[in-house]
C-alpha cells in the first residue's frame, strides 16, 4: 500500500519528531504552562490527554484546546495534536458545563434501558459535544466484562457481566463516537473486569484467569469491536497476569499481551495506548526510562505519561536511549508513527483543529441533548422490586405523614464536574485515594462530593411532595439515637446506598433499619422502606428482605432528578438489571453440578468460620450466624452420626458452601446448609442438598427426614425470612413447606426489670403443680423417658447432653421438672447459663459482648388442658433461675409458635 503524503513527510526522518508522536502527555492546570508548551514546541509532543484538572467550562476548554493546536501549528507540526478525553458519562466525565454539556447515564445505566439505539444516540451526542470544543479522541468505550460483578472496581463504568451484551452496547457506543467524527479507544485491555487486589506492597491488581477463560468471556467484546473495523485505538492496562500460561507484572509492558495477544491473536491493527507509566509499581520495578522502552518494545504506539514534567522528560530521554542502544529499531518507531498518523487523519485536520465550533454549536444542540439525557435517565431507572406497592409515593404516603431520607457520607467519587469547587477541598481533606479507588478511576475523573448531591436530592423530594422531609446522613458509626428517633417519627424511609459491597457499613446500616421497620410494623405502625442503590445495582439485588429496591446507576444531579420523578410517579420506570441478572434464573447454570467433598476439620474449619462471617454480614440479625462457629456444628456424640460436606475451591481453600447432616435413632436431619451469597444461584446449594439426602437415605433404619434440629440448635427449621426465599427454595427441593412445625426463639431483653405476671403463681398453685431442678444423669431416667415419649430423638440427646454436662459445668445447666401431686412428670425444660458447654451448640445462647445470657431450652409438654399453664410455669421457673444467675437477658429456644406465653412478656426474636 502506498504511503500517504503525511506518512512520507521528510520531517519524520528526524527521529526526535517521530518520538514526539509516540507520546501522549498531560499536565495539571487550566492554562497552558511553560512545561506543556516546551513539550509541544521542542519535543514535538503529538498527543495530549485532558483531565478534569484542566477543564473549567466548555468555553475555557475550547479556548485551551485551540491554544494548544495553535502552538503545535506554529511549531511546524505536520498534523494537529490528538486531544484525548475520558468522557464515559455517569460518574466519569472530565468535562462538565451545565449550560452546554449534557450529563448522560453510565454504561451500565444505558444497558439498563435495554436499548442499543439509545446507546448509539447518547454516544454520538457525547462525542458531538466534546468535538465541538476540539477533542478528537475519546478514551472509550469501556469493553470490560464484569466477572463476579459485585466485587469488581469498575462497577457501573462497564456494561455488565454478559460478554455478548458488553459487545453489543460497546459497539453501539463506538459507532456513535465514530459517526460524530471522533476517534475511539477501547479499554481496558485485556480486562479490568475481574481483578484481584492481593495486597502487594505495590498495590498492583492481578488477573488470575487463564487465557482460555479470558477468551471465553473477557476478550469477547474486544474481539468483536476489533472485527467491526471501526475501533481506532486500544488502551492497554497496567494490571498483572498470573496464570499457567503467562506471568506478567504489567500488561502494557508485555510483548505477550500487546504484540502476541492483541495484534496477532485478535488481529488489531490500530493504535495501542499504554496505561500511564507514572505508576508507583512500575517506577519502583523498572524506572521510567526502562518502562517507556519496554512499553514501545511490547508493541504500544502511544505511551501515556499523565502529568509530572520531570518524569515526562525522563521518558523522552529513555526512548532516545533505547534507539541509541539498538533496543528499539527505526522500523519499530515508524510502524507506530504510521498508525498514529492514520488515527489523526481519521479524526482531525488543521482546518477543524484551529476552528472548533465551540459554543455556537453547543448552544444549538443543547435543548435536543437535554431531552435525550432525560429520556436516557428515565429509561435507565430500575425498580428491581416493589413488593409492597410503595411506588409512587404520592399514593402510598399521605401529605401529613413524614418522610425520612437517609444518605451515606461517601468518599468523593469520580463524576461530572458539577461541584468543581469541592474538588480541592475534598482532596485536601481525604488525602490520597486508596489502591482500589485509584484503579477504579485512574485518578483522571473529576471529583464530586456525594454529600452535596444528596442535600439537593432532599430538597428536590421536599419540593415535589409539597410536604415535610426529614433528612440526615449515616456513617460507619452505624445506627445512632438520632436515626432511631427519626425512624420512629417517619411513616416512610428512603435509604440511599452507594457501592455497599465496598462500603460495608452501608449494608449493615440498611439491614439494621430494615429489621427495625419490620419490628415496628409488627406493632401496627406504618414504616414503609425504600432502598435506592445509586451506584452499583448489586448492593441488595439478591436480598429480597428489602421489599422495595430501586437502582439509578449513578448519583449525578441528573440521575437524582430522574429518581425523584420516578418516586412520585411522573413516569413509570422501565429499566432492568444488566447482564445475566436480566435473564431468567432458570438458565443452564442451574444444571451445573459442583464437586462435593467430605468436611475435613483440619482443612475446612477456618474456611467454614470465614463463610459464616460472610453470611453474618449479609443476613438479618435474627439469623444466628453472628454467634455460630464451625465448633457449633460438630457434636462428637456417640449416639449421633454426623456427616458434613463442603463445596470448596481446592486452590484457595475458600468454602463456597457447607451442609451438616445428622442421624439419630432413625431420624435423619439436615441441620444447616450455607452458601456464600456471592456464589448463589449457580447450584451450589442444590449440589450440597443432593449429596446430603443421598447419604441420609442410605442410613439403615431411617424412619424420618427433617429440616433443622434441636441439637445442635443452629437452625430450628426453615429460616423465616421476610421474602420467603428460603421457603420457596426448599419447596423446589421437594420438602413439604405448606404446614411446617414453626419453632421460634423468644427473648426477654432486660431481666433486671422483669417481674412475674400477676396471677401466674396463683394459677400454678391452684393446679397443684410443683417444680424441681435436677442435675446429672443419676436420677434422670424419668426425664429421658418423658422426653422420648413426646419429642424427637435429637431432643432426647439434647437433654442427655445437658444433664451429663450439668455437673461438669458446675451446675451451669440442668432440667426443671413439672410434677403432679402423685410425682408423675407433666413437663420438662432445660435451663442453662452462658458458661455452659451447651451454648457452643446453641448459638442463640452465645453472648454478644460481655452480657450473660440465660437459656430455657426445648420445653416438653404434652397436649392437655393444662398445656399452656405448664409451659408458662416451666418458662417462669427458667427465667427465675436465669435471673438468679445474674443473666442480662433470657432466651427461650425451641418452642412451638402455637403456644401462647405472651403473659411472660417475651417477644419473638427469630423464626
From TrEMBL:
Residue ranges of domain Glycoside hydrolase family 3 N-terminal in the record: 19-342
One annotated GO molecular function: hydrolase activity, hydrolyzing O-glycosyl compounds
Pfam family for this entry, one: Glyco_hydro_3
Keywords: Glycoprotein, Glycosidase, Hydrolase
GO biological process: carbohydrate metabolic process; peptidoglycan turnover
Top-level taxon of origin: Eukaryota
InterPro entries listed in its UniProt record: Acyl_CoA_acyltransferase, GH, Glyco_hydro_3_C_sf, Glyco_hydro_3_N, Glyco_hydro_3_N_sf, NagZ_Beta-hexosaminidase
Family to which this protein belongs: Belongs to the glycosyl hydrolase 3 family.
Protein name, UniProt field: Glycosyl hydrolase family 3 N terminal domain-containing protein
Phylogenetic lineage: Eukaryota, Fungi, Dikarya, Ascomycota, Pezizomycotina
Amino acid at each position: 500500500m502506498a504511503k500517504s503524503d503525511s506518512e512520507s513527510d521528510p520531517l519524520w526522518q528526524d527521529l526526535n519528531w517521530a518520538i514526539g508522536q509516540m507520546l501522549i502527555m498531560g499536565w495539571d492546570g487550566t492554562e497552558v504552562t511553560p512545561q506543556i508548551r516546551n513539550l509541544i514546541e521542542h519535543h514535538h509532543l503529538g498527543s495530549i490527554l485532558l483531565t478534569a484538572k484542566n477543564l473549567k467550562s466548555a468555553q475555557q476548554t475550547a479556548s485551551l484546546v485551540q491554544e494548544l493546536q495553535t502552538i503545535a501549528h506554529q511549531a511546524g507540526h505536520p498534523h494537529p495534536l490528538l486531544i484525548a478525553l475520558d468522557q464515559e458519562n455517569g460518574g466519569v466525565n472530565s468535562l462538565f458545563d451545565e449550560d452546554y454539556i449534557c450529563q448522560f447515564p453510565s454504561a451500565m445505566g444505558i444497558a439498563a434501558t435495554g436499548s442499543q439505539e439509545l446507546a448509539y444516540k447518547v454516544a454520538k451526542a457525547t462525542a458531538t459535544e466534546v468535538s465541538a470544543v476540539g477533542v478528537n479522541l475519546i478514551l472509550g468505550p469501556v469493553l470490560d466484562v464484569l466477572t463476579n460483578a459485585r466485587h469488581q472496581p469498575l462497577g457501573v463504568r462497564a456494561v455488565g457481566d454478559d460478554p455478548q451484551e458488553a459487545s453489543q452496547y460497546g459497539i453501539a457506543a463506538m459507532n456513535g463516537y465514530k459517526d460524530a467524527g471522533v476517534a475511539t479507544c477501547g479499554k481496558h485491555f485485556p480486562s479490568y473486569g475481574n481483578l484481584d487486589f492481593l495486597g502487594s506492597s505495590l498495590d498492583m491488581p492481578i488477573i488470575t484467569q487463564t487465557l482460555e477463560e479470558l477468551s471465553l468471556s473477557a476478550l469477547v467484546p474486544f474481539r468483536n469491536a476489533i472485527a467491526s473495523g471501526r475501533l481506532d485505538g486500544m488502551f492497554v492496562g497496567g494490571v498483572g497476569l498470573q496464570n499457567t500460561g503467562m506471568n506478567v507484572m504489567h500488561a502494557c509492558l508485555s510483548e505477550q499481551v500487546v504484540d502476541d495477544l492483541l495484534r496477532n491473536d485478535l488481529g488489531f491493527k490500530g493504535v495501542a495506548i499504554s496505561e500511564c507509566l507514572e505508576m508507583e509499581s512500575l517506577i519502583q520495578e523498572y524506572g521510567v526510562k526502562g518502562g517507556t522502552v519496554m512499553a514501545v518494545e511490547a508493541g504500544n504506539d502511544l505511551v501515556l505519561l499523565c502529568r509530572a514534567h520531570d518524569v515526562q522528560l525522563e521518558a523522552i530521554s529513555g526512548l532516545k536511549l533505547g534507539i541509541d542502544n539498538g533496543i528499539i529499531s527505526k522500523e519499530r518507531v515508524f510502524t507506530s508513527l504510521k498508525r498514529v498518523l492514520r488515527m489523526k487523519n481519521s479524526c482531525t485536520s488543521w482546518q477543524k483543529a484551529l476552528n472548533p465550533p465551540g459554543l455556537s454549536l453547543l448552544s444549538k444542540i443543547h435543548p435536543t441533548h437535554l431531552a435525550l439525557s432525560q429520556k436516557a435517565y428515565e429509561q435507565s431507572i430500575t425498580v428491581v422490586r416493589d413488593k409492597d406497592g410503595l411506588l409512587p409515593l404520592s399514593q402510598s404516603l399521605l401529605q401529613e405523614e413524614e418522610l425520612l431520607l437517609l444518605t451515606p457520607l461517601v468518599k468523593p467519587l469520580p463524576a461530572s464536574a458539577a461541584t468543581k469547587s469541592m474538588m480541592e477541598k475534598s482532596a485536601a481533606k481525604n488525602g490520597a485515594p486508596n489502591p482500589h479507588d485509584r484503579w477504579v478511576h485512574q485518578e483522571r475523573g473529576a471529583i464530586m462530593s456525594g454529600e452535596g448531591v444528596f442535600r439537593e436530592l432532599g430538597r428536590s423530594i421536599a419540593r415535589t411532595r409539597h410536604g415535610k422531609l426529614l433528612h440526615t446522613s449515616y456513617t460507619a458509626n452505624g445506627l445512632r439515637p438520632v436515626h432511631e428517633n427519626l425512624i420512629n417519627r417517619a411513616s416512610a424511609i428512603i435509604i440511599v446506598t452507594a457501592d455497599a459491597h465496598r462500603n460495608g457499613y452501608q449494608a449493615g446500616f440498611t439491614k439494621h433499619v430494615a429489621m427495625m421497620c419490620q419490628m415496628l410494623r409488627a406493632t401496627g405502625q406504618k414504616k414503609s422502606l425504600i432502598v435506592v442503590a445509586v451506584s452499583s445495582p448489586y448492593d441488595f439485588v439478591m436480598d429480597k428482605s428489602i421489599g422495595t429496591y430501586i437502582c439509578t446507576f449513578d448519583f449525578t444531579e441528573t440521575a437524582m432528578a430522574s429518581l425523584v420523578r420516578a418516586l412520585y410517579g411522573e413516569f413509570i420506570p422501565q429499566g432492568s438489571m444488566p447482564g445475566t441478572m436480566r435473564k431468567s434464573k432458570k438458565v443452564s447454570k442451574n444444571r451445573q453440578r459442583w464437586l462435593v467433598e467430605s468436611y475435613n476439620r483440619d482443612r475446612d474449619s477456618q474456611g467454614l468460620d470465614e463463610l459464616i462471617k460472610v453470611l453474618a454480614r449479609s443476613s438479618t440479625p435474627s439469623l444466628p450466624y453472628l454467634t455460630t462457629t464451625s465448633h457449633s456444628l460438630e457434636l462428637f456424640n456417640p449416639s449421633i452420626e454426623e456427616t458434613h460436606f463442603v463445596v470448596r475451591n481446592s486452590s484457595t481453600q475458600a468454602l463456597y458452601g457447607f451442609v451438616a447432616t445428622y442421624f439419630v435413632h432413625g431420624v435423619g436431619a439436615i441441620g444447616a446448609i450455607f452458601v456464600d451469597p456471592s456464589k448463589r444461584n449457580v447450584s451450589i446449594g442444590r449440589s450440597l442438598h443432593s449429596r446430603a439426602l443421598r447419604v441420609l437415605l442410605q442410613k439403615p433404619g431411617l424412619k424420618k427426614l427433617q429440616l433443622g434440629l434441636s441439637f445442635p440448635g443452629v437452625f430450628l427449621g426453615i429460616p423465616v425470612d421476610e421474602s420467603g426465599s428460603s421457603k420457596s427454595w426448599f419447596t423446589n427441593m421437594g420438602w413439604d413447606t405448606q404446614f411446617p412445625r414453626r419453632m421460634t426463639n423468644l427473648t426477654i431483653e432486660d431481666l433486671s426489670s422483669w417481674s412475674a405476671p400477676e396471677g401466674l403463681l396463683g394459677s400454678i398453685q391452684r393446679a397443684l403443680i410443683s417444680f424441681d431442678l435436677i442435675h446429672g444423669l443419676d436420677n434422670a431416667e424419668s426425664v429421658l423417658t418423658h422426653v422420648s415419649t413426646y419429642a424427637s430423638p435429637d431432643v432426647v440427646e439434647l437433654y442427655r447432653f445437658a444433664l451429663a454436662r450439668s455437673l461438669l459445668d458446675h451446675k451451669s445447666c440442668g432440667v426443671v421438672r413439672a410434677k403432679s401431686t402423685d410425682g408423675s412428670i407433666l413437663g420438662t425444660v432445660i435451663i442453662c447459663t452462658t458458661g455452659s458447654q451447651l451454648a457452643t451448640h446453641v448459638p442463640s445462647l452465645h453472648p454478644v459482648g460481655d452480657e450473660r445470657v440465660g437459656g430455657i431450652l426445648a420445653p416438653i409438654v404434652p397436649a392437655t388442658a393444662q398445656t399452656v399453664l405448664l409451659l408458662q410455669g416451666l418458662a417462669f421457673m427458667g427465667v427465675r433461675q436465669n435471673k438468679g444467675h445474674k443473666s442480662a437477658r433470657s432466651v427461650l429456644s425451641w418452642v412451638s409458635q402455637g403456644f401462647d406465653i405472651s403473659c411472660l412478656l417475651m417477644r419473638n426474636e427469630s423464626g
